[in-house]
Amino acid sequence: MAEVDEASKELFVFTMSAKTGQIVKFESVNGAGARHEISEDEWRKLAKQKTEATLEKLLEEAFEAGIACALGSEDDSDEEDETAEHADLRQLLLKPLFEQSAAARLMRRTVLRQAILQSLIQLAGKARAPEPSARSVRRH
After folding, report:
1. Residue 57 lies inside a defined structural domain of this protein
2. pLDDT for 20-48, tens place per residue?
3. Which of 10, 33, 112, 139 is the most buried (most CB within 10 A)?
4. Could you tell me which residue, 107 or 131, shows the higher pLDDT?
5. Which residues, 6 or more positions from 9, have their beta carbon under 8 angstroms from its beta carbon?
6. C-alpha angle with apex 128: 126 to 134, nearest 5 degrees?
């Protein structure tokens, strides 16, 4: 776990093509401001860190939620309670539906790259402003 703690003390710099959204350079910046290009081995270690929030996973979950909503089912179960067998079955059933839907276009790397770039640009502008509190967010 020391690697995760150490990585959290660093900043990451992604140099992206404005035209394609492709990452052309991936660097870390230490507390003194020194930059270091991330090696293939370092990237593999970072990529192995467990995270629940990849864009692909979020898109799949949104698709699944849409299906559940259309069917009128409310799933109150916690994802942590899901067995590996149930997760595999759910994936087996939803994958063909997802791949044949309009949502499949969203999973293409070119689309994801542009979405990431635009999201980062928007977030960079909002980084200077304080986050709105949960109470001030309107519900429709």
Report:
1. yes
2. 999 999 999 988 889 999 999 998 888 88
3. 112
4. 107
5. 30, 31
6. 60
Tokens representing 90 are 């759910």
Instruction: Give the residue with greater pLDDT, 28 vs 102.
Output: 28
Confidence of residue 122 (pLDDT cuts 50, 70, 90): confident
Q: Are 116 and 59 in the same domain?
A: yes
Instruction: Specify the 3-state DSSP secondary structure of 121.
Output: helix
Which amino acid is it at 3?
A: E
The pair of three-digit structure tokens given for residue 91, joined into one six-digit string? 């994936």
Mean pLDDT of 100-127: 83
Domain for residue 140, yes or no?
no
Residue 101: C-alpha distances to residues 19, 65, 97, 117 (Å)? 27, 14, 6, 24
